[in-house]
Design brief:
It contains 18 helices and 19 strands. By secondary structure, it is an alpha+beta fold. Strand 12 and strand 13 form a beta hairpin. The radius of gyration is 40 Å and the shape is flat.
Length: 530
């Protein structure tokens, strides 16, 4: 309410009265004020009597201490619904009270309460089918993101031998959500139509509230003007006071009109006839909304609570499954079963076959640290969701008997070496950027195992001969070669890569860069023919 500048009437408790009448002031909403509005049955159009009782007790000093105690709705002495027009219906009032009671933060060790940020979607809804208590939520795994539902009230409160039962949160959540959307499929279109109508209705109620605020501010400003006009000119002090009050009322009126205009500008778009016709055929993809990245965990939990009253589970370890009863809002229920993880060797956490094959392919060329960096760069994680490190790669290789690098690191023979980029920089006397440019253009050859893997460059006599301090006689630069051949520079580079043109790299002087040997022109060939 406060972000939208909606103010509420409050009775002035400072003892200010005028001729015995109650003084009402308008102020920003506060938690006690909103709570009183939601819990007072008078706003729901009902007359009640006996909402509280006085309880008395003796304190340590023997004095009688009395305090008011609020009674449950079932113990009120008199309740007359629809006694007078209310701001909300009696059914809405009762639903609000029930929701407030359900949102109360439970005592430590008990389930329930309002939705929170945890990843367990059914938090507060799961009930133990053996003892009837609310089940707790525990988290484990990397970063505490893996939920689990467990019933430990007997163990915690009564010292029983063991907890009743527990179940994987991911399995239960997935099964209940799938069943919910199976039930919702026929009602998707109706849900969309109801959501659109609700959005328009909420907008109309908000606009009406701001319109009433403008009417109230206009009335107060007009009333202040009449008071100022009625004052006698001789009463200058009174006139100045009334003038200041009038100006303040006008400022309030202008602010109320600005708030109304801003609210009108936020009116939701109305669907066209073509969009409504398409919607009548396509329906509403509630599952896409539920799974969208923009939908938060809290919003998913709130959607589940709108439809599900509670979820009762009974785990049968011998049968390897859990019986789940979903009690929907309205009284209906659905029974499903959830398979439990298999115990033994088959249930062990296993690395995916694709990850093992990737490590086996990389291990033939790189050490464990390099493989870990490559897997991290490609977003590959371990079976437990952790990032690969040198030790984890080494442990996985030893477990699956994957051999390490088999290619020699040093020289292959007296003239040929396979080196990395850093070593190639030293041997060839050039920069890292130049080496990558040569690899891209095909001027030099290299090997790369897997996307993002480090390059291994072959250094031999032929490559050393391509790097010279001076350009041979008659060889030209890249731009001049492209001009003489009448082609683009990239075409010249492609012909060098295919071996159709000879090129060397000049590493010093003004002609530093590629020097290319062009084929002799046709007329020169004919002139040289005897």
């Amino acid at each position: 309410m406060n972000p939208e500048n909606l103010i509420r009437p409050r009775e002035n408790l400072a003892g200010l009265r005028s001729a015995g009448a109650r003084v009402i002031r308008w102020a920003e909403a506060t938690y006690p004020a909103v709570h009183d509005f939601l819990t007072n049955p008078a706003y729901g159009g009902a007359y009640v009597f006996g909402r509280t009782k006085v309880s008395r007790r003796l304190d340590e000093a023997g004095r009688v201490v009395a305090r008011d105690q609020e009674l449950p709705r079932e113990q009120w002495e008199v309740t007359i619904p629809d006694h007078h027009p209310g701001y909300v219906s009696w059914q809405t009032y009762v639903a609000n009270r029930d929701r407030l009671r359900a949102n109360v933060h439970p005592p430590k060790g008990q389930g329930g309460g309002a939705v929170r940020e945890g990843r367990a979607l059914l938090q507060g809804l799961v009930v133990c089918g053996k003892c009837g208590r609310r089940m707790l939520v525990g988290y484990s795994g990397p970063d505490g993101r893996v939920p689990r539902y467990l019933c430990a009230q007997g163990l915690r409160l009564y010292g029983s031998a063991r907890s009743c039962q527990s179940l994987s949160g991911r399995r239960l959540d997935a099964a209940v959500v799938e069943e919910m959307f199976t039930v919702l499929a026929p009602a998707a279109l109706a849900a969309t139509a109801a959501a659109l109508a609700e959005a328009e209705d909420q907008q109309a109620r908000r606009v009406r509230a701001f319109e009433l605020g403008v009417e109230r501010a206009r009335y107060e400003a007009e009333r202040a003007r009449r008071q100022f006009d009625a004052v006698e000119p001789e009463n200058r002090l009174v006139a100045r006071s009334l003038e200041r009050d009038w100006e303040a009322r006008l400022v309030t009126l202008r602010q109320a009109e600005a708030d109304l205009a801003a609210q009108l500008s936020r009116r939701p778009a109305v669907l066209t006839e073509e969009e409504v016709a398409w919607l009548s055929h396509a329906g509403a993809d509630l599952r896409a909304v539920f799974d969208a990245d923009t939908t938060t965990i809290r919003e998913r939990k709130q959607l589940l609570r709108l439809l599900i009253g509670e979820v009762v589970i009974t785990v049968d370890r011998d049968a390897g499954q859990a019986a789940v009863r979903i009690r929907w809002e309205g009284g209906a229920h659905t029974d499903i079963t959830v398979a439990l993880p298999r115990r033994g060797v088959d249930s062990a956490i296993r690395t995916e076959a694709d990850t093992l094959e990737r490590i086996r392919r990389l291990a033939a060329h790189y050490d464990d640290a390099t493989i870990a960096r490559l897997l991290a760069r490609q977003g590959v994680m371990t079976a437990t969701g952790l990032a690969f490190t040198r030790d984890r790669v080494g442990s996985l290789r030893r477990k699956h008997r994957i051999a390490g690098p088999s290619e020699p690191v040093g020289p292959i023979d007296d003239d040929v070496q396979m080196v990395n980029v850093a070593e190639a920089q030293t041997l060839l006397g050039t920069s890292r950027a130049t080496l990558y440019r040569w690899l891209s253009s095909g001027f030099i050859r290299g090997e790369q195992h897997g996307p993002g893997g480090p390059w291994r460059i072959r250094i031999d006599g032929e490559l050393r001969a391509k790097i010279t301090p001076d350009a041979p006689e008659g060889w030209v630069g890249l731009q001049e070669a492209a001009r003489r051949l009448g082609v683009a520079k990239q075409t010249v580079l492609d012909r060098i890569q295919r071996g159709e043109l000879n090129a060397v790299h000049v590493n010093r002087g003004q002609r530093k860069g590629l020097a290319i040997q062009l084929p002799p022109p046709q007329d020169a060939l004919f002139a040289a023919t005897p």
